[in-house]
Amino acid sequence: MNPANRAPRGGLRAAARWVRRNLVLMAGTLTLGFLIVPNVVVMVFSFNKPNGRFNYAWQRFSLDAWADPCGVADLCGSLVLSLRIAVLATLGATVLGTMIAFALARYRFRARGAINVLVFLPMAMPEVVMAASLLTLFLNLGARLGFWTVLIAHIMFCLSFVVTAVKARVMSMDPSLEEAARDLYAGPVQTFVRVTLPIAAPGIAAGALLAFALSFDDFIITNFNAGAAVTFPMYVWGSAQRGTPVQINVIGTAMFIVAVVSVVIGQTVGNRRRKSATSA
User: Count of alpha carbons within 13 Å of 277, Cβ hemisphere only?
Assistant: First the structure.
């Protein structure tokens, strides 16, 4: 074989081996980039000063929107309303979902299979179907659409996700740990608080964070059941038809930074705990 032809083939084989070794890393990097790019665009345009009403084309750098993030009428009011609903919906869905998850994972009772199906239905059905169903329920009950109807709808919507996260954690728990606590004369409440709850805490926290994100970000269910109330997603949707203010990008950027910082802090604390446990 000609040495001149052998060298290119060897290079191609080496490149193919390198691609096979790093295929997962490349796919993960591309996926992460696909998810991050829209956030970067929002961040960049939060420093824009558009000439017209629409913040879709870069004009010139400005810090005016960051200096006055509530400069647009009703923007911060809708943000506060969304945060209130998200926090209360997270608390309600987490408490109810945790109790349901423990009941489904630990006990055998009639209609357990049917309840499992009913709990997971909101995750399977289209969101618009659930929104219309809840609206029909509220209208038949004569309820006034507003803050409370949105809150109830969000709790119902987030409940399934909390049950899924907590149930997966509870089913993976080792029952011998609780039995050991009872053998050491710990009562039922003490066993739950000191053994069961700390072990289930990661699943509960994951369900709570997921519920908060889903509630704060929801538009379809909220739009059906909000009445005169205007949440932040509804405000963004309405303003997009008239002209998107730069302050929306500012709030979106601030929330993205808070989320990233929270994840980094959580990972750092978790790594330190694992290192301390390993060294001990």
Answer: 6
Whole-angstrom Cα distance, residue 212 to residue 58? 33
37 in a domain, yes or no? no
Tell me the C-alpha distance between 265 and 244, whole Å: 33
Cβ pair 46, 250 in contact under 8 A? yes
N- to C-terminal Cα separation, the chain: 61
Q: How many folded domains does the chain comprise?
A: 1
What CA–CA distance (Å, rounded) separates 203 from 220? 27
pLDDT digits (tens, 9 = 90+) for 181-202: 887 878 888 888 888 888 888 8
Q: Give the range of the structural domain holding residue 168, as residue numbers without chain letter.
A: 73-244
Q: Is residue 235 one of the residues assigned to a domain?
A: yes
Whether 27 is in a domain gets the answer no
CATH label of the domain that carries residue 89: 1.10.3720.10
Task: Express each pLDDT in 238-261 by its tens digit.
Answer: 887 777 888 889 998 998 898 888
b/e 103-131 (16+ beta carbons within 10 angstroms → b): ebbeeeeeeeeeeeeebeebeeeeeeebb
Query: Can you give the pTM of this predicted structure?
Result: 0.82
Report the C-alpha gap between 200 and 63 in whole angstroms. Answer: 45
DSSP letter for 9, please: H
Q: Is residue 2 part of a domain?
A: no
Residue 173 DSSP one-character state: S
- Largest distance between two CA atoms of the chain: 87
